[in-house]
Amino acid sequence: MTVNIRGCHYHYQWLTPYDKTKPTLLCLHGFTGTGATFAEATHYITSHNSLVIDLLGHGLTDYDLPVTRYTFEESCQDIAALLTHLNIDAVDLLGYSMGGRLALSFALHYPERVNRLLLENSSPGLKTTEERESRQKKDNQLANKIETEGIVAFVNYWESLPLFDSQRSLAPSIQQTIREQRLSQHPKGLAQSLRGAGTGNQPSNWSNLPSLDIPTLYAVGSLDEKFKGIGKEMAQLTPNMTYILIDKAGHCPHVEQSALFYKAVTDFLKEGQDESY
Fold first, then answer.
1. Domain definitions of the chain by residue range
2. 42 near 27, Cβ under 8 Å?
3. HEC assignment per residue over the chain
């Protein structure tokens, strides 16, 4: 379904028929993804309505927008407006990679609308101005590369990154599904997303972690050394965060080890439901 949110057309989908007696789990995908990346959730999560959206520049959501419209501040306002449109006061919020950065930002800006926060292989951004400026340059260079060389050349490059080495052991059919999802994106949408919502353009949330009171799960693949380190540091700073490893997974546990990942998700969500009685 598509809805006009603050002048942008957002595509969203209930993965299972909506049941007003159940709470909602909102899932936010990563860069080059769409809400469809969470399709496996329906096999494991029965306690919640699972809601997915295509973020700006991705999937069936608008992409031909000014770069200023892509910032996390704007996207947080969009998510709040979408929830209001759907008559949902608060959600359990799951975000993967880029979607996790957005989920954390949303939880900090709208804590009253998040019951429990689940972050998968994500970060609060970069700590210093120098790091952000350096990353901005790289993000802009990659955005230009996408627009000039096209989506196929970009996807070939993207899939060759060491970050995704562990995905090469997935079944060929799963690898093909991931590739087709990446190839379905519009070059301008990905480029503008990098320029507006890339890690270099995101304000750092490291200093805000101690004030995050929402029960939070940080789930990370055991093979993803970079984000294991980030997650451990986040857990030390965040008073209500649980840190867990998903065995034999790299940067995308919800695809690489879906059963283990969604068991961790369902266990964490169940804690919240048990506390409500």
1. 2-127+204-275
2. no
3. CEEEECCEEEEEEECCCCCCCCCEEEEECCCCCCHHHHHHHHHCCCCCEEEEECCCCCCCCCCCCCHHHHCHHHHHHHHHHHHHHCCCCCEEEEEECHHHHHHHHHHHHCHHHEEEEEEECCCCCCCCHHHHHHHHHHHHHHHHHHHHHCHHHHHHHHHCCHHHHHHHHCCHHHHHHHHHHHHCCCHHHHHHHHHHHCCCCCCCCHHHHHHCCCCEEEEEECCCHHHHHHHHHHHHHCCCEEEEEECCCCCCHHHHCHHHHHHHHHHHHHHHHHHCC
Would the pLDDT of 111 be above 60? yes
Query: What is the average pLDDT across 244-248?
Result: 98
Pairing outcome for strands 114-120 and 91-96: parallel
Look up the CATH architecture of domain 2-127+204-275: 3-Layer(aba) Sandwich (3.40)
pLDDT of residue 272: 77
CA separation for the pair 82, 173 (Å, rounded): 33
Is the confidence at residue 277, as pLDDT, over 70?
A: no
Q: What is the mean pLDDT of residues 150-163?
A: 96
* pLDDT, tens digit, 9 for 90 and up, residues 11-67: 999 998 999 999 999 999 999 999 999 999 999 999 999 999 999 999 999 999 999
C-alpha distances out from residue 26 to 92, 103, 194, 245, Å = 6, 9, 22, 22
